Amino acid sequence: MYPYFPPYRTITLLMEGTTIEVPLLENHTYNLEGILTAINENTKLIFICNPNNPTGTILAENELELFLKSIPPHVIVVLDEAYVEFIDRERYRTGIDYVKEGYPVIFVRTFSKLYGLAGTRIGYAAARVEYIETIQAVREPFSANRIAHAGALAALDDQEYINKSLRENKREMLELTNKLKTLGFDVIESHANFLFVDMKEHVMVLSQALMQEGILIRPCIAWGLQSHARISIGTSEQNKLLIKSLKKLEKI
């Protein structure tokens, strides 16, 4: 199956649009050639989540730029960059670069992930002036409150917290990946703050068992993936509890 962030489809249907869903490649990255083939005269928007949710994979820069050069002029690409701050590649080009260079891109970001402000529901988008004007025409009048604005601005200024979060996420991701692999699970290389894991058994059964241990993982059943889960990178203590619980369940 695809898998990607479900609201793309939901929002399109709410707006009485028609969705064309192109499955990911075997390496769990976007099939850009497949998307190009699926474009027709009625295509308006293409959603690309980079890093992708729930796989954590990213596109090679040359792939994405070539894709943007290949789309017809009536198509706009929405780059969902909710996890982009976690990409640890020097000079990796992101939505802001493509917007500055005039590509038909709207990039959207959030303060819910790296900055830890999920409860405030605050984020932002950037694009050409004409795209933003269209968005402004339909934007809800009270889409974000002053407390959320204040929190977002304070988060941007707190570089110490940002660096700490990135450093700890990188360290714990490596540790957790290695331990999960040692237990026999398949783990996809992630560029976000979660792991896409093949648990090698029916994931709902394992998920229910982990809930009894006080641990929540995200089964990927909705995408037709019976053995995969998305596992967020927690603190060192939380990650150790996950591994301890998996070892305990393995012996039952």
TrEMBL record:
It comes from the Bacteria. It comes from Bacillus salipaludis. PANTHER family: HISTIDINOL-PHOSPHATE AMINOTRANSFERASE, HISTIDINOL-PHOSPHATE AMINOTRANSFERASE 2. SUPFAM superfamilies: PLP-dependent transferases. GO terms for molecular function: pyridoxal phosphate binding; transaminase activity. One of its GO terms (biological process) is L-histidine biosynthetic process. This is Aminotransferase class I/II-fold pyridoxal phosphate-dependent enzyme. Residues 3-246 form the Aminotransferase class I/classII large domain. InterPro entries: Aminotransferase_I/II_large (IPR004839), HistidinolP_aminotransfase (IPR050106), PyrdxlP-dep_Trfase (IPR015424), PyrdxlP-dep_Trfase_major (IPR015421), PyrdxlP-dep_Trfase_small (IPR015422). Keywords: Amino-acid biosynthesis, Aminotransferase, Histidine biosynthesis, Pyridoxal phosphate, Transferase.
